[in-house]
Amino acid sequence: MDHSGHDHSTHMDHSGHGDMHSGHPGMGEGAPRCSMNMLFTWNTENLCIVFRQWHIHSTFSLVVSLLAIVALAAGYEALREGIRQYEAWTNKRVETTPHPREQYRDDDDVEPQLEDEERLAETTMPWLLGQNVAAVTKRAHAIKSVLYGIQNFYAFMIMLIFMTYNGWVMLACSLGAALGYFVFGSRTTATKETACH
């Protein structure tokens, strides 16, 4: 079948469409765009930080964003210190949790000691009555697991912010980490086990 006589130009002509991107937000000529750099840069034109909505439009928005990044990075160090304090508190709580009565059932010499421990628990830690070491440890471990997940999510979000490869943003992340360590990390070493958290 020979189709050489048919006019195919009317089916393929898209000249009446104009700019195909003009009707789509963020795709037209005047709409702001996010530039994604994979190389180090100091350029802040069309800089977006992690989300399209976190777009740097002016020097003022850059300064506010950099201050927010410093606060976020310092907040991460505050979170880490809070988790360390929670772990110390739970370790102390596990140590002071009364042991179950079954441990002393066969030993008559320990009965006076048991009464002293119960009296101490009643006067100093009434919330621990009826609990045992295994229950306290299990609950503490579940809470620490949730906190660990939050800490990792936070760390990876800061990593994504750092990975804009913008020098100003990278400096803000580092300054925030240093400030957070200065304020919250007085009882920890300056070395870290991993690079991102």
Automatic annotation (TrEMBL):
Residues 1-22 have a biased composition (Basic and acidic residues). One of its GO terms (molecular function) is copper ion transmembrane transporter activity. It is found in: Membrane. The chain crosses the membrane at residues 54-76, 145-162, 168-184. Residues 1-28 are annotated as: Disordered. It is a multi-pass membrane protein. Its main location: membrane. Pfam families: Ctr. It comes from the Eukaryota. One of its GO terms (cellular component) is membrane. InterPro entries: Cop_transporter. Keywords: Copper, Copper transport, Ion transport, Membrane, Transmembrane, Transmembrane helix, Transport. Belongs to the copper transporter (Ctr) (TC 1.A.56) family. SLC31A subfamily. This is Copper transport protein. It comes from Neurospora hispaniola.
